[in-house]
Backbone:
C-alpha cells in the first residue's frame, strides 16, 4: 500500500506541475478561444512569456546545430518549438478572425473592447474603417438619404440593427476540473444541473459564461 | 414584384460553393438600386401628402375648438375629418410598403456585399498581396480596393507583433516536409539552406518555408 500511495501522490504532484506550465496554459487558452462564440480576454502575460521561451528555444536549437549535436535531439527540440509556435500563432489567428467577423459589435460594447490587446484594438479600428469605406462605396452612397447608415436600417430605426452579433446561446462542450455542485443554468426556472469534475457537458455558452471567465470550466 | 430582384441577387451568392465567388453581378445590382430610387420617388410625394393631411386635420381641430359653430357645421367638419383620415390612411399604407421594400432591398444589397467581403477576407489569409487572375476578374473595383486595404491592415498587425500569422495553418506533424516543385522559381534563400527550385525537383524543406509556396500553388507536398 505504501509505495502505491506514494505513487498516487507523486502523479498528483506531476499533474499539478504539468497543468501550470506555460505550454499547458497556452493549450488551454487556445482551446477555449477556438470553442467560444465570442472573443475572450487576451492573455497578455502568457503570450509574452511564451514568446520569450520560444526565442530561447530557437537559440538553443541553433547552438545545437552549430555544435553538431545528434540530429535526432535537434529535430526533437525543433518539433517542440514548432508545436509551441503553432499554438501561439493559431491562438492569435483565431482571435483576429473573430475580431474581423464581429468588429462593429466589438467596437460598440466596451466590455468586449477591453478584452483586446493594444495591437488588436489598432487592427480593429483599421478594419472597421476599411469595411465601412467598402460598404459605402459599393452600396450606401447609391441609396436615398435616410437609408445611408451602415449601422441602422433606416433613419426611423431606433437601435443599430444592422450590426451582426455573435450567437451567445450556441451549445458548447465543456468539462470542469472540480466539483461545482448544483448550478442554476438560467432564470427560466429549470432544475439546477450538477456539475461534477471531469465529466463532459453540452451546455449553452450563455449560462456558463461567468464560469469560463473565472477559469473554473474548460471548453473542449 | 418588389424585392424579387434583390432576392435573386442573394440567391446567386448562396448558389455558388461556400468560399468561392461568382463574378460581381453589376447588372442585377444596378437594377436593384434603380428599384430603390423608384421607391423613393413614390415615397416622397406620399410623405408630403400625409403631412398635408395632418396639417388639415390640425386646422380642422383648431377651428372646432376656437370658434363656436352650429350643429350643422359640426357635422360637416366631422365628415371632413373622416374623409381626410381615410385618405391619410391609404397614403400611410402606401408609404409603409415603399419604406419596407426599400429597407428589404437595402438589407439584400448589404448582405450580398458583406458576405462577399467575408470571402475576400478569408482569401487575405491564404494569399499574400497579389490575387491570382481568375479571382481578380470576379471582383468589383471596390472589392479589389477592400482586399488591398485588408491585406495591408493584416500586415501592419503582424509586423507590430513581429510574428507571421499566415504560416502554420495546419498543426505540424514533421519539422521537414518533402515537396515537389511545380514551377521554375530559381535560386531561393530559405531559413536554413540555399535551394535551387527547378521544375520537378524533389526537396526536403522546412515546413514554414514550404507552406508559402504550397499555398500559391507553386509546389506540392509529397505524402507517403
Residues:
Amino acid at each position: 500500500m505504501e509505495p502505491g500511495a506514494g505513487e498516487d501522490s507523486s502523479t498528483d504532484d506531476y499533474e499539478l506541475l504539468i497543468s501550470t506550465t506555460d505550454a499547458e496554459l497556452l493549450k488551454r487558452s487556445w482551446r477555449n478561444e477556438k470553442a467560444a462564440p465570442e472573443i475572450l480576454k487576451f492573455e497578455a502575460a502568457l503570450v509574452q512569456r511564451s514568446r520569450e521561451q520560444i526565442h530561447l528555444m530557437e537559440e538553443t536549437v541553433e547552438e545545437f546545430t552549430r555544435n553538431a549535436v545528434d540530429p535526432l535531439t535537434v529535430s526533437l527540440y525543433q518539433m517542440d518549438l514548432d508545436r509551441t509556435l503553432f499554438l501561439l500563432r493559431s491562438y492569435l489567428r483565431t482571435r483576429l478572425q473573430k475580431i474581423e467577423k464581429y468588429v462593429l459589435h466589438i467596437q460598440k460594447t466596451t466590455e468586449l473592447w477591453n478584452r483586446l490587446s493594444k495591437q488588436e484594438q489598432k487592427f480593429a479600428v483599421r478594419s472597421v474603417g476599411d469595411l465601412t469605406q467598402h460598404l459605402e462605396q459599393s452600396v450606401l452612397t447609391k441609396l436615398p438619404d435616410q437609408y445611408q447608415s451602415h449601422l441602422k436600417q433606416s433613419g426611423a430605426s431606433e437601435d443599430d440593427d444592422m450590426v451582426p452579433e455573435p450567437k451567445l446561446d450556441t451549445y458548447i462542450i465543456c468539462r470542469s476540473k472540480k466539483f461545482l455542485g448544483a448550478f442554476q443554468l438560467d432564470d427560466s426556472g429549470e432544475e439546477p444541473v450538477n456539475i461534477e469534475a471531469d465529466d463532459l457537458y453540452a451546455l449553452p455558452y450563455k449560462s456558463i459564461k461567468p464560469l469560463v471567465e473565472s477559469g473554473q470550466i474548460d471548453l473542449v | 414584384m418588389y424585392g424579387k430582384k434583390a432576392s435573386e441577387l442573394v440567391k446567386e451568392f448562396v448558389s455558388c460553393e461556400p468560399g468561392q465567388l461568382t463574378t460581381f453581378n453589376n447588372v442585377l445590382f444596378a437594377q436593384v438600386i434603380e428599384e430603390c430610387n423608384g421607391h423613393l420617388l413614390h415615397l416622397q410625394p406620399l410623405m408630403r401628402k400625409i403631412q398635408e393631411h395632418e396639417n388639415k386635420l390640425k386646422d380642422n381641430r383648431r377651428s372646432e375648438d376656437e370658434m363656436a359653430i352650429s350643429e350643422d357645421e359640426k357635422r360637416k367638419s366631422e365628415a371632413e375629418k373622416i374623409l381626410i383620415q381615410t385618405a391619410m390612411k391609404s397614403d400611410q399604407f402606401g408609404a409603409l410598403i415603399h419604406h419596407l421594400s426599400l429597407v428589404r432591398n437595402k438589407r439584400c444589397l448589404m448582405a450580398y456585399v458583406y458576405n462577399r467581403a467575408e470571402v475576400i477576407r478569408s482569401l487575405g489569409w491564404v494569399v499574400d498581396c497579389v490575387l491570382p487572375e481568375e479571382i481578380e476578374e470576379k471582383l468589383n473595383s471596390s472589392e479589389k480596393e477592400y482586399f488591398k486595404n485588408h491585406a495591408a491592415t493584416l500586415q501592419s498587425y503582424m509586423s507590430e507583433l513581429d510574428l507571421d500569422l499566415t504560416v502554420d495553418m495546419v498543426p505540424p506533424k514533421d519539422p521537414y516536409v518533402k515537396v515537389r516543385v511545380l514551377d521554375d522559381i530559381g535560386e531561393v534563400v530559405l531559413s536554413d539552406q540555399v535551394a535551387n527550385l527547378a521544375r520537378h525537383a524533389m526537396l526536403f524543406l522546412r515546413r514554414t518555408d514550404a507552406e508559402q509556396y504550397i499555398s500559391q500553388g507553386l509546389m506540392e507536398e509529397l505524402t507517403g
